[in-house]
Amino acid sequence: MIASVGNSYLCCIMMTVITFHQSVLYRFLDKAAIISSTDAKSDLITNPWRLCTVTQVEELKILVRMFPVWATTIIFNAVYAQNSSMFLEQGMVLDKRVGSFNVPPASLSSFDVISVMIWVPLYDRVLIPIARKFTGREKGFSELQRIGIGLVLSIIAMVSAAFVELKRLEIATSEGLIHEKSAVPMSILWQIPQYFLVGAAEVFTNIGLLEFSYDQAPDAMRSLCTAFALVMVSAGSYLSSFILTLVSYVTTRGGDPGWIPDNMNEGHLDRFFWLIAGISFVNLLVYISCAMKYKYKNV
User: Fold this and answer.
1) Does residue 159 share a domain with residue 28?
2) What total of structural domains would you count in the chain?
3) CB of 236 within 8 A of CB of 81?
4) How many helical (H) and strand (E) elements, i.e. helices and strands, does the chain have?
5) 3-state class (DSSP) for residue 107
6) Domain boundaries, position 119
7) Using an 8 Å Cβ cutoff, are 151 and 201 in contact?
8) Which of 45, 223, 265, 293 is most deeply packed, by most CB within 10 A?
9) Which helix (H) or strand (E) holds 101?
């Protein structure tokens, strides 16, 4: 990148001398591989900050193309972070009794794991053969299609959580529990669909992103790109914390209890879930745009 800026004054015609499987995107980066007359007469030709190989330039172009796809999965991982945050808060104010057992809210995250265990073989044994008949692809779906399906499922998961919370607040109102910090008579098992949907979304998006990062990365940077895909998971957690902090600050101004108060019966956790669903929907539109414009690398 620095070398391309440094050589920006050079004529573009010179680039035709050094092209080799050269992509037409981001042509301004090609100038990093141009040998100027000044560099040829000095020791600067050996300085990697002044001159790059065509391979290095093409590898950078691949990373630049991949970055928007990586970035659009941050919102997905913010949804995934609700498994260990707002889903638990919601479960704390639901009826945790199942028969003679008292179910801890955190234990419902096991349905996320169960969902993954169900969807992985279901995807390989059922969905791929069906998709292969329509798409003609050996893998059934492309990596970008797989990621997109997961993003849609994550939105449905947030919608499911919002409807559960709406019903919980409705019961709290009818039972006169609005101003009481107690659980409402609604089974915690109603949370199972949202956990199950998040697990299904994980199978599609996170695994699809790892496959995308490995297949599309430059040969010498596959491990780095795969690791960078995992960085999106932590970025999503940070984003979830930021959104939660911002929502708490904005909704508690003026002395209001806010959407997420200590007494959840007085709050509107459903609005938080709707907000995440709305952000995820906008993110999906951005992702579709990026996916349609994405150019797969030439193998």
Assistant:
1) no
2) 2
3) yes
4) 11, 2
5) helix
6) 63-293
7) yes
8) 265
9) strand 101-102
